[in-house]
């Protein structure tokens, strides 16, 4: 499997609890390399655009409000099989269903305040990376 990139967000519940380093260490320990990283406070428009695929879902407005409730850290992660590896180390969306040792089992507070986002496919990873980063900001 060739080296692949995926997109990650450390969400406001995690930055609020000063867990940026702890979460990043779990990503790195899983074999992922942070090749771009920026701490930002998303605008409502940015969050709505990022989650546009979910706009018909009943949780959309709450999700957007949560994602702009504090700073987030947007990251590009690189490694072998990075999309799947990141999803494995994140654990299930709902921390109640997440495996022991995953980021969400260890740190998440709820299905909404679930500490991290990760791309669900290589195709979406490319779209999500381009939403936040210029090519020259990614240094592998
Ligand atoms: P994320 O990977 O960022 O993608 C969409 C997010 O919606 C998801 O993580 C959850 O944090 C959030 N969310 C909130 N409520 C729900 C729900 N009922 N089902 C699925 N996702 C939800």
Automatic annotation (TrEMBL):
EC numbers, comma separated: 2.7.4.6
Active site (record annotation): 117 (pros-phosphohistidine intermediate)
Localization annotation: Cytoplasm
Swiss-Prot/TrEMBL keywords: ATP-binding, Cytoplasm, Kinase, Magnesium, Metal-binding, Nucleotide metabolism, Nucleotide-binding, Phosphoprotein, Transferase
Keyword match Signal: no
Cofactor requirement: Mg(2+)
InterPro entries listed in its UniProt record: NDK-like_dom (IPR034907), Nucleoside_diP_kinase (IPR001564)
Keyword ATP-binding: yes
Positions that bind ATP: 11, 59, 87, 93, 104, 114
Residues covered by the Nucleoside diphosphate kinase-like domain: 3-140
GO MF annotations, alphabetized: nucleoside diphosphate kinase activity
PROSITE patterns for the chain: NDPK_LIKE (PS51374)
Major place of residence: cytoplasm
Superkingdom of origin: Bacteria
Reactions it catalyzes: a ribonucleoside 5'-diphosphate + ATP = a ribonucleoside 5'-triphosphate + ADP; a 2'-deoxyribonucleoside 5'-diphosphate + ATP = a 2'-deoxyribonucleoside 5'-triphosphate + ADP
Pfam families per UniProt: NDK
Binding partners and assembly: Homotetramer.
Reported function: Major role in the synthesis of nucleoside triphosphates other than ATP. The ATP gamma phosphate is transferred to the NDP beta phosphate via a ping-pong mechanism, using a phosphorylated active-site intermediate.
Similarity comment: family membership: Belongs to the NDK family.
NCBIfam families: PRK00668.1
UniProt protein name: Nucleoside diphosphate kinase
Lineage of origin: Bacteria, Pseudomonadati, Pseudomonadota, Alphaproteobacteria, Sphingomonadales
């Amino acid at each position: 499997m060739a080296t692949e990139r995926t997109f990650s967000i450390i969400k406001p519940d995690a930055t609020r609890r000063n867990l940026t380093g702890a979460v990043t260490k779990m990503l790195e320990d899983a074999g992922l390399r942070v090749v771009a990283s920026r701490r930002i406070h998303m605008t409502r428009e940015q969050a709505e655009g990022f989650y546009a695929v979910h706009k018909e879902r009943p949780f959309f407005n709450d999700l957007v409000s949560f994602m702009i409730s504090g700073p987030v850290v947007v990251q590009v992660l690189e490694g072998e099989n990075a999309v799947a590896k990141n999803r494995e180390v994140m654990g299930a969306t709902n921390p109640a269903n997440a495996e022991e040792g995953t980021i969400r089992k260890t740190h998440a507070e709820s299905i909404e305040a679930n500490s991290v986002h990760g791309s669900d496919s290589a195709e979406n990873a490319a779209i999500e990376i381009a939403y936040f980063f210029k090519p020259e900001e990614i240094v592998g």
